[in-house]
Design goal:
The chain is an alpha+beta fold and 425 residues long. 46% of the residues lie in helices and 18% in strands. 23% of the residues are buried.
């Protein structure tokens, strides 16, 4: 039976599982929120110069002759017919002034920067630095219908174009477009909308991902000691990064980036998404093996050794070990053949050479291990090297010295195993 220290240390397994589950969950939540499109309608507002608009009427329009003969007052009445909304009050005066100032200075007033696209904001800042005051970086300011003072008039409107008229000593007009919610109609993204109005939750995504990474780092790591055989810490972390970020997250997130919307990726384009998620599932398998090696440890005692893994606890008194035997792990032959055949599918010399190199590495890879055979058909494989033959564990010599000191029988015959994943028992 394991001693108290072993029992206590065995509880590191749930912690190591949670460490990786938190990181995976945070990445999944971050990308899902980043591409969660907003289904609420929105409003665009801009100043309107009716005199200039009348001058620029298309000459090919049937109404051109009629419009060209109108006075400015008549043209305004013609253009705003059934679309005019009269407003007044201090709140509306402030609103009109802020819109006017934003367009006059080619820069949204303080607190309104999110009402234009990021590329438009960058262009506005550039124009301010270069002194190009006549430059036009944006053409609309975006608002929610529920924002004051718009909410006082929007409740009665249907989607479409309108004009706001400020009743004041100097009459002012704004052009207002009430648009339906942003909706993906194909692959792409909402580049015509500010992020706040198309992906309003994106601002939280980075913090969610960072939270998962911080939890991964700050959770207590398993302690080591001279009598404990564990995989080297840097290898465990490298396996985590490769399995979680490269193999899982890359293929999990790609459909969202390509399609441009979380809901759309999970509904209209679900079959396209599943193609990538099948590849992401391979990453999930490797995440399991990363957790396996993070938890895996061998306690070396004077009279026995004990193995802690995701599969539980195994105890091997040296007197009960029938024999140990060297073992090697090689890739299955069918995998090597598939890799070899893929060389001929390469396009170009560079791609063909790259695949040939990967095939050569695969065929020559060999992991070294130790097979331990106990009584009552209890056995275990201890894989102590990477596929290149480099030692992967700390203090492994402590185990071999203990087995030698206990005079455990050794079979010299090499046991070769061909498998994608290493057997543990």
């Amino acid at each position: 039976m394991p001693d108290a220290k072993i029992k206590k240390d065995s509880f590191s397994a749930p912690l190591e599982i949670l460490r990786r589950l938190f990181l995976v969950a945070s990445l999944v939540a971050a990308v899902a929120l980043a591409f969660l499109t907003d289904f609420r309608p929105y409003v665009t507002v801009r100043p309107v110069d009716f005199a200039k608009k009348q001058e620029n009427v298309n000459r090919w329009l049937e109404e051109y002759e009629q419009i060209s003969r109108m006075s400015l007052h008549e043209y305004i009445a013609y253009e705003t017919k059934d679309k005019l909304i009269s407003v007044d009050g201090a709140e509306w005066q402030t609103f009109f002034q802020q819109v006017s100032d934003s367009f006059e200075h080619n820069m949204p007033v303080k607190g309104w920067q999110f009402r234009i696209r990021e590329d438009e904001l960058k262009d506005s800042l550039k124009s301010m630095k270069t002194g190009e005051h006549d430059r036009r970086s944006f053409y609309y300011l975006f608002f929610r219908p529920a924002e004051p003072p718009l909410n006082s008039v929007m409740w009665s409107l249907k989607t479409g174009a309108y004009y706001l008229k400020l009743n004041s000593p100097s009459v002012k007009y704004l052009e207002l477009n009430y648009s339906p919610a942003y909706e993906l109609t194909g692959f792409g993204n909402s580049s015509r909308w500010p992020v706040e109005f198309s992906y309003p939750n994106r601002k939280y995504s980075l913090w969610i991902a960072l939270t998962g990474l911080i939890i991964y780092i700050i959770l207590p790591w398993p302690k080591t000691a001279p009598h404990i055989v564990t995989m080297t810490r840097w290898r465990v972390i490298l396996m985590d990064m490769a399995s979680i970020f490269i193999l899982f997250f890359l293929f999990f997130a790609l459909p969202f980036f390509i399609i441009g919307g979380t809901v759309e990726a999970l509904t209209d384009y679900i079959f396209f998404t599943l193609i990538f998620w099948i590849l992401a599932a391979l990453g999930v398998i490797l995440i399991y093996w990363a957790m396996h090696y993070a938890v895996y440890r061998i306690y070396v005692h004077d009279d026995r050794m004990e193995i802690i893994s995701l599969k539980g606890h195994q105890e091997f008194p040296y007197s009960d070990i029938s024999f140990t035997q060297p073992a090697t792990l090689r890739p299955p032959k069918w995998l090597i053949i598939l890799s070899f055949l893929s060389i001929f599918l390469g396009k170009g010399v560079a791609q063909t050479a790259g695949q040939a190199g990967r095939t050569a590495l695969l065929s020559s890879s060999k992991g070294n291990g130790l097979y331990v055979k106990g009584k009552d058909n209890i056995s275990a494989y201890i894989w102590f090297s990477d596929p290149m033959g480099n030692m992967s564990f700390n203090n492994f010599d402590r185990l071999t010295d203990a087995l030698e000191k206990a005079k455990v029988p050794v079979k010299d015959e090499l046991q070769e195993i061909r498998a994608v994943f290493p057997p543990s028992r």
